[in-house]
Amino acid sequence: MDLALTEEQQMIVDMTHGILEEHCTIDVVRQMEDDPKGYPEGLWKQFAESGLTGMLIPEANGGSGQSLTEAALVYEKFGEFLAPVPHFVSSVLSARLLLTVGNDAQQAEWLPKIASGDAVLTPAWLEPNRGYGEVGVQMEAKAEGDDFLLSGVKRHVYFASAAERLIVLARGPQGIDLFLVDPSADGVTLTQQLSQSGDAQYRVDMQDVRVGAEARLGAPGMGWQAFNAVLHEGIILLAAQAIGGAQKVLDITVEYSKERVQFDKPLGAFQALAHYMADSATHIDGGRVLVYEAAWNASQDRSISRFAPMAKLFACETYREVTRICAQIWGGVAFTIEYDCQLYFRRAKQLQLSWWDTPYLEELVAEDVLRDD
Amino acid sequence: MDFDFTKEEQKFAEEVERWLVDNHDPEVMDLTRENFSQLADTPARRAFMQKLAKQGWLGMSWPKEYGGQEIEGVYEFILNEALARHGAPQIGKGVGIIGKTLIRHGSEKLKQEFLPQILSAGVEFAVGYSEPQAGSDSANMQLKAERVDGGWMLNGQKMWTTSAHFADWYWVGARTDPDKPKHDGLSLFMIPMDHPNLEIQSLPTIGKDTTNQVFFEDVFVPEDYMVGEQGRGFRYIAEALDLERFTMFTLSPIEDRSKLLVQWAKGATRDDKPLREDPNVRRTIAHIVTDTQVAKALSKRFLSAAMKGDKPPSIESSEYKLFTTTLSQRVCKDALDLTGAAGQMREGQEDAPLAGRFEGAYRATLNETVGGGSSEIQKNIIARRKLGLPRNF
Predict the structure, then answer these.
(1) In which region does residue A82 sit, left (phi positive, over 0), alpha (psi from -120 to 50) or beta (all else)?
(2) Is A354 a domain residue?
(3) Contacts of B21 (CB under 8 A, 6+ apart)
(4) CA dist A203 to A120, A139, A198, Å?
(5) A 223-282 → B contacts, CB under 8 A
(6) Co-location of A209 and A232 in the same domain
(7) ipTM of the complex
(8) Which of A278, A313, A370 sits opposite B290 (nearest CB)?
(9) Contact status, residue B251 vs residue B299, Cβ threshold 8 Å
(10) Are A171 and A309 contained in the same domain?
């Protein structure tokens, strides 16, 4: 039992912190809100040069083959700095999908480019009025000879305008398949949709978009299984991101509460407020260890079927609640655009709603706990 | 980063588990007593502690010159979690705060008289800190200790002395220096619990067991039964809490109650439908299981910090206690909500779900967020020591 970071892990944390501190200031974060591309080229270049873009890709494919534990530490930093980057969709989800079910040619074509940051790929998953589960994927992939014709609507496709390929979940003849689709192909229409956090997300309309058999990742009908497994890994990182954000917003709030005086006392001297902050710190520390343990279990090749949803469920609830508490402590200024508290407040709720929300995660945990022995 | 116990620690945990199964005795191990099960308050339970002593499991972390083994405190953590899981008495005050304080500050006489007895489980202690005017404000003890020829004369009252009705010795804080600031005016004394001038009054609780108030009327304590130096009592008390890093509020009973509830929910039906298909039940269970894992994470965090040994894990232990005791009560509340009307039936009623365990636990856990430092005190500690917020009371 030793929860301390190794020297190497600490180095990765410090390096990530250094990059973000210099290239991901609050001004940069604010500038990127509602930006059609959604991420600053300079920051992404730094990510690429430092190897962050390839951290979950094996060395043989151009990456550095780190484990999910290291990635979780990095994601905590992303949360702290509110980093607007396509890392999750490209370097995590797309890379892991390619690694899990991509064939040699697909891996050779895309993994080195993802690792070097030269290409961004992004999954196109959710559909209007449908849920987060397998049944929610209803877009049709009609077989026509060796080709497939994709028709339907996807939403919440992050960084789609900057992506070289979408990884589209669609229903083929044998179940859900994953298709690599060029977003500039005929029949694809991207429409930016403004979100709570102001990140770059798109609605993708597809009308008879033709792709060849070589565009399919994995065996027919195996798409959901692959996506489900990869997203289980992914949500551990988002949980880490939530913890990082919660910690940062609590930190700036604690500092503010030492300076801001009312009734001749600093706010932090009022027990009503101090106890809010102590509760927040406790939930953040508990959530952080839970997230680390989930990531560590994944790194040890142990099952994460319960740990992963527990981690995101708890971390995102904590982040949301901590931002509410912090806004309360800041008082009226938290309601203004000028103060930073609102940046976390909006992102916390969006993160909770994205990539499996609270009810879906509760159900994943319940199913794992309550199924027959 | 490593979330597992070492091979040696795992081996020890298995050894303890095997031993507890082999030595199972329903008279000694009673989970329905909840937190009170930790007390060695009956002859059978005292005999059990003596068997534990023969195993060499008492005072494992003590220095060798006092009969200990100088092994890491994590083994005491493992032992206590296992004892608690079985509803057996736990190692506690004797090898913990009292033994460790005597080792550091006690006279040769007190060491020789008590340390061997502690290691052989030959003595049980009661601790008297709380008073009517010293609850959360623990330094506000008013029990008067006045200098008399050859010793001290004690007058006043203690509250919440849970072990008073069965203990052999009383470990008591009293005010020897009323003119000094409140933290500096206290001293520690040891008094035989059967002293004729001590009156013990039972204070029945809504749990299954009783606690006590103790009245002192001209209780004479000889000079050499003051522990350490006069006026340093509160420092010793605080220091002992820091020294005693590994045997605190146990998690395993809460973990096991969560598991028990899940097992029950898997098989229960209402209106002929499996309860586990009810979305509300599923949601409740998901949160219980998740929060129980968070409590375990905070326990690991505390344990990991304690094992580092550089500074007392006071913040970690406050966060752990705050979260875990709150959760403990909520698990019992949720259990009653899930069992519905039947949940109100008490232990011993034939129709009570889970033999009335949660009705009993619902009562017994009420005190967890108060005893041993209330949730509010824990939050004050976190606010001050971790967040650096100004003193607020």
Answers:
(1) left
(2) yes
(3) none
(4) 17, 14, 14
(5) 254, 257-258, 265-266, 268-271, 274-275, 277-279, 281-282
(6) no
(7) 0.96
(8) A313
(9) yes
(10) no
CB contact under 8 A, A2 and B322: no
CB contact under 8 A, A278 and B301: no
Residue type, A318: T
Question: Are A317 and A206 within one domain?
Answer: no
Query: In this complex, which of B3, B303, B390 lies closest to A296 when CB atoms are compared?
Result: B3
Query: Can you give the pLDDT of all 393 residues of chain B as single tens digits?
Result: 999 999 999 999 999 999 999 999 999 999 999 989 999 999 999 999 999 999 999 999 999 999 999 999 999 999 999 999 999 999 989 999 999 999 999 999 999 999 999 999 999 999 999 999 999 999 999 999 999 999 999 999 999 999 999 999 999 999 999 999 999 999 999 999 999 999 999 999 999 999 999 999 999 999 999 999 999 999 999 999 887 778 778 999 999 999 999 999 999 999 999 999 999 999 999 999 999 999 999 999 999 999 988 788 999 999 999 999 999 999 999 999 999 999 999 999 999 999 999 999 999 999 999 998 999 999 999 999 999 999 877
Q: Which H or E run contains A158? A: strand A147-158
Within 314-343 of A, beta carbons closer than 8 Å to B belong to 314
| Burial letters B297-306, b for 16+ CB under 10 A, else e | bbbbbbbbbb
**Are A102 and A213 contained in the same domain?**
no
Say which residue the tokens 């220095």 belong to. B63
A319 CA: distance to closest CA in chain B (Å): 15
Chain A interface mutation, best of B288, B314, B387, B393, highest count of A Cβ atoms under 10 Å:
B387
Is 0.95 surpassed by the pTM of this model? yes
Angle, CA of B5, B9 and B12, to the nearest 5°? 140
Which residues make beta-bridge pairs with B156? B216
Within this chain, do residues A104 and A242 fall inside the same structural domain, yes or no? no
- Residues B196-224 as b or e (16 or more Cβ within 10 Å = b): eebebeeeebebbbebbbbebeebebeee
Q: Is A260 exposed, middle or buried (0-12, 13-18, 19+ CB in 10 A)?
A: middle
Contact A259, A266 (CB under 8 A): yes
H, E, C per residue of chain B:
CECCCCHHHHHHHHHHHHHHHHCCCCCCCCHHHHHHHHCCCCHHHHHHHHHHHHCCCCCCCCCHHHCCCCCCCHHHHHHHHHHHHCCCCCCCCHHHHHHHHHHHHCCHHHHHHHHHHHHCCCCCEEEECCECCECCCCCCCCCEEEEECCEEEEEEEECCCCCCCCCCEEEEEEECCCCCCHHHCEEEEEEECCCCCEEEEEEECCCCCEEEEEEEEEEEEEHHHEECCCCCHHHHHHHHHHHCCCCCCCCHHHHHHHHHHHHHHHHCEECCEEHHHCHHHHHHHHHHHHHHHHHHHHHHHHHHHHHHCCCCCHHHHHHHHHHHHHHHHHHHHHHHHHHHHHHHCCCCCCCCHHHHHHHHHHHHHHHHHCCCCCHHHHHHHHHHHHCCCCCCC
- Domains delineated in chain B: 7-91 (no CATH), 126-231 (2.40.110.10), 248-386 (1.20.140.10)
Tokens 């008067």 belong to: B144
Closest listed residue to residue B191, CA positions, set B159, B218, B210: B218
Partner residues linked to B170 by β-bridges: B126, B191
Task: Looking at the structure, tell me whether residues A113 and A126 fall in a common domain.
Answer: no
What is the b/e burial string over B111-121, where b = at least 16 CB atoms within 10 angstroms of the residue's CB? Answer: eebbbebbbeb
For B107, other C-beta atoms within 10 Å of its C-beta total 14
| Full domain range(s) for residue A206 | 122-220
d(CA B270, CA B281) in angstroms, rounded, equals: 12
* Secondary-structure breakdown of chain A: helix, strand, coil percentages, each rounded to the nearest 5: 55, 15, 25
